[in-house]
Specification:
five-stranded antiparallel beta sheet, alpha+beta, 2 helices, SH3 type barrels
Length: 87
Amino acid sequence: MATTSEVMEWVRTASKTDLDMVKDYIQMQRMNLGRVFKPGDKVKFDGGRNRGMMHGTFVKAMQKNAEVLCNGARWRVNPALLEADAP
């Protein structure tokens, strides 16, 4: 596994084609993060703006976001922010 500084050095010297491939791969990975959860799974995420950690139930994965039910409200959350919560 490469260190962060090694990756940054590679990015600095990489070709445009290589950078585009890495960008596409990162986007695919982000989209697939939401697919590791199934409807009904307990999840948590940082609600920001002094809301603290939000706990809820994963509802569904959408194209760019995940839908999470928290305290009766439906939130659209970036899948990269979701973590599994204790059942």
